[in-house]
Amino acid sequence: MVYPPAPWNLQGYAVQTLQLVDVARVRPLVPSELEIVSLLPGKTLGGIYISSYGLGSVMEYNELIVVSAIANYAGKWGAWVSHIYVDNPNSVAGGREIWGLPKELAQFSWEGSDSVKAAPLGYRVTVSQENRQLCSLNYSKQTLALPLPFSGNVFSADRSNLLLFKGGLQSRSGLIKGELEVAEESPFASLNLGQPLLTVACEDLRLTVGAPEVVGNRSLEFSY
Q1: Is the CB of residue 149 less than 8 Å from the CB of residue 182?
Q2: CATH of the domain at 128
Q3: Which residues pair with 108 in a beta bridge?
């Protein structure tokens, strides 16, 4: 496989949901060395990020990221990605070999336009793996957008280490309506993701994913 070194610079469009996740449900998916941060008693913050990266990106592909928890390790905070899917084999290889992310191949279907209503809210993206649907997200058109920069840390793990890397995002972002459907056969159905607290659309997205750093040793019993 051929993929560029970190950092990766990506451009395109994304939809992000934010949901509360039961700590007890996500605990088996998170390395024991990471402390899960509770925003409410027994609840951490998670969500679904679905994006399409096009011209101007180091690689063109679609992506689904399942953030299942906010975690803390040695005073460093970051999101924990339990599941991640793309439709480009080179992105799978780079994600696994550079960042230790459990990327898998999947298929993405984007529906809807300003003139055609393809879903209850106007737009829909569906992610499937072979004959199994993973999830679908119905979402509305973005009407009010503001230029909002954002950066955050993400935890991952390779065979022996806990890793941390930074993502920096610039886009025209705004709140939209979103309805998430996770299929019963989906690998992340156990998270019991409810309807989003918030759904954000990111237009004119510019994302930089930095190189990872080793922040600790990984327990041998953990694997994705």
Answers
A1: no
A2: 2.40.400.10
A3: 127
